[in-house]
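Methods: holo model generation. Sequences were used as deposited, without trimming of termini or removal of tags, and paired with ligand SMILES retrieved from the corresponding compound records. Each pair was processed once, and we did not select among multiple samples. The sequence and S-adenosylmethionine SMILES for this entry were:
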Amino acid sequence: MREAATDAPKTIAALSAEARRTLEDAGVDAAAGDVRVLLAAALDRPAASLIGAGAETVSGGGAWRFRGLIARRAAREPVSRILGRREFWSLDFAIDRGVLDPRADSECLVEAALQHAADRPAPLRVADLGVGSGCLLLSVLHERARALGVGVDRAEASACTARRNAAALGLADRALIVVGDWTEALGGPFDLLLANPPYIPSAAVPALAPEVRGWDPIGALDGGADGLDAYRAILPAARRLLAPGGAAILELGAGQWSAVADLAVAAGLRPTRCVRDAAGIARCLVAETAP
Ligand SMILES: C[S@@+](CC[C@H](N)C(=O)[O-])C[C@H]1O[C@@H](n2cnc3c(N)ncnc32)[C@H](O)[C@@H]1O
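and the model returned the structure below.
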């Protein structure tokens, strides 16, 4: 941290103010929120318990741990990576260096999946292509008690993390996680194909925020020259894998809607829904088979 660290006990207010300045100097947005979460983690107490506690003193170990966490955040490590956890769909997911840090925007795929399957009486069969931490597949399985799912990822580290999350959420008996290349190992039929594939055009990767380019695996980000490589690989196989009335539910990068909708049509699917994220960007495409 910027000010010289001393062993003298400091108040929560003083430590927080120092930390906030350190993060702001490092270019971290919304530093105050990060300070609160990291202080709570360092002191092993709920963040809510810090409200109104500014005059309390923090001694030795707590302050030392807090400074360590703030140094990591100042180096632009995301808070979720420092804590090793990310909340998604109100569920707790472990994350590590091998997986994409799940984004809140991706929750719109879970919503679209549940809506598409709302009236289906039989157990849902779900595939998640590029399963990462398992956030999409496991959220859907959590909401549909009889649903069964397969998650595929090319990265073995992701498959391991997804399996660990499935076990922690009590879903391991309904989620098979395999290592493979997109749809190659799958036979189907599935009612839902979910995918949040890498979709950043290669040339745009170096300009991503440090929290993204420095910490998310490149294989989870880089979608090839125009960002569309994964859709070209996945969509032609989708029709073979989907049951009648099934749907592919795909996350999109900004500005990719029409190109991916065209690929879906070329693959014999009907784009039926566009779901926008909180920023108004067309973030999710639903493409259905004929009923
Ligand atoms: C953007 S991340 C999405 C992770 C997770 N589904 C989520 O929404 O947080 C894309 C995932 O696709 C995986 N992936 C990339 N290429 C793949 C391929 N050819 N076959 C299978 N998975 C692949 C990456 O390893 C990564 O885990």
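The first strand starts at residue 10 and ends at 11.
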